[in-house]
Amino acid sequence: MKIHKEGAVTILMALVFAVLLGGTSWYFGAPKVLYWILFCIPMGFAVFFICFFREPKRRPAGDGRRITAPADGKVVIIQEVEEPEYFHGRRLQISVFMSFFDVHVNWAPVSGTVSFYRYHRGSYLAAWHSKSSTKNERTTIAFRNEDGTEVLCRQIAGLFARRVVCYAEYDKKFKAGQQIGFIKFGSRADVFLPLGTKVNVSVGDKVVGAETIIAELAPPADATSKNINQ
User: Which of 130, 133, 187, 225 is catalytic?
Assistant: First the structure.
């Protein structure tokens, strides 16, 4: 396991702050209790940041039809909704909530080419709030697989998250399980799938990003008709 590049500056600042506070209090002869307080508190934050920005190795299990979790966390929503930004129609939404203690790397849920990308400034409602999907700071990414089926993934900032990092670009190809970004400090990732998609998880399930297969797309219509004719 290594530290994600998005956390390098944050961790370095916490370590420098710990050394400066501790060194200054020691230099001016502060009481030992005060010295340890001034040193240990920022050092504690540094340790927390090191844990938070960890980047574990994953063995991607998805492909162009098997949908993997876009993040580590707990499934909080599985429902049919109206997706107004890109599809403008009914879709199946699966949402994964990331707590402070989950890895906050985001992974492509499906193999495909980016057919849509948009960043939105917004509010910072609690990530589990139903309106956070359309009100909070967020990025929306649509992936088109080889048979033309599109899957939409949305990175959503949370109550304490203040920065959504996304590596997607129009026409950029991603493999399922490839990193698409990072969200700092508590957040959510939504996936919007065609109706009729087979769901493999339930609300409350813990999932592992890039490895847990949360859903499986139905076969394309032409493939289904071909099988029937045979």
Answer: 187
